[in-house]
Amino acid sequence: MKKALLLVLAVVLTVSLVACSTPAATPSADASTAPSADASVSAEASSDANASTPAASGSKKVAGVVFQEDQFMKLLQLGYKDAAEKAGYEFFPGNTNNDAAKEVEMLNTYIDQGYAGVAIAPISETASVEPLKKAAAAGLAVGLSNSPLDGQDWMTACYSSDNYQLGQMTGEACAKYIEENMDGKAKIGILQFKSLLPEQSGARSQGFIDEVTKLPGVEIVSDQDAWLQDKAITVAGDMLTANPDINLLWGANEGGTIGATMAVKNAGLAGKVVTFGTDASEQTAAMLQDEANILQALTGQDPYTIGQKTMESVLMTVEGKDNPDKGKLVIVPGQLLTREKPDEVTAFVADLKTKMGG
């Protein structure tokens, strides 16, 4: 009886040792995460990651990439998303945060994970070209937004505003105001974004300057760089302090426009200094409606349509459809908003809220 008990104990011990020494099953690796603002690629979605030609493999994954988080870029991203999802594609947003290395990394990831295409606002019209060309050569359908590139066979198309024209439109409105309200004379301070996007900032500024300096009584007193709202408030405030004869400020982008207008208000100079700007948003539109009467006019882009058309060109290429804009730059017109036409400002805000789901 004792021998039998010992035998049973030996068998149980052996089974226990075998169970303990068996390695636990290794969980399958998580799918690679797409470098996006708020979405990741699932394991199922990455099953075709090694496809050499995503479009030919029938991939239904597309990405939309911007480079910062202002309202323009949010609307651009929304245009990408709506066009992709309307066509039945799985959409993944991304943001390079103005980092060239991240832009390259993201393009490589989309290729490796078998994406069909990408609609992207490139960081630079020069430095970004080579990585984008390589992505297209690897089988990724690449469409561009917010860039001046034209005549490039590797891109599905490029949709953008004409930055010189945006500055020019604001400059024309500004020159008209100076003639009618300032006896044709003005001392102007400018806030650019040339450290961020030198080509675009330069084009807008040149368009603005070419128009206002047609008036012999106009002088550009100061031209500095400040594109983020908080910094623009400080820079514009310092500009006004250092140059008390300035009676007009122009912001080349949304942040500069907001910052310049707030700086005038903070300095108690409403009624003495006016502002003009570029990039229409809910906040800049509200400043046009503000009783303080500081911001007089601004030129807005149509980022939603730019994004929508860019993604549509990507999908036409992916699906092998005729793409009349292939390789071309297509200009999407801007819109001038002025204090003189409040109904147009109200309509702009209503349309903006509808698109943003507000």
From TrEMBL:
Keyword Ribosomal protein: no
Keyword Signal (UniProt): yes
Molecular-function GO terms, alphabetical: carbohydrate binding
A Pfam match: Peripla_BP_4
Alphabetized PROSITE patterns for the sequence: PROKAR_LIPOPROTEIN
GO CC entries: outer membrane-bounded periplasmic space
Span of domain Periplasmic binding protein: 68-321
Keywords carried by this UniProt record: Signal
Highest taxon of the lineage: Bacteria
Annotated signal peptide: 1-24
Subcellular locations according to the entry: Cell envelope
Family named by the database record: Belongs to the bacterial solute-binding protein 2 family.
Protein name stated in the entry: Ribose ABC transport system, periplasmic ribose-binding protein RbsB
Organism the protein comes from: Christensenella hongkongensis
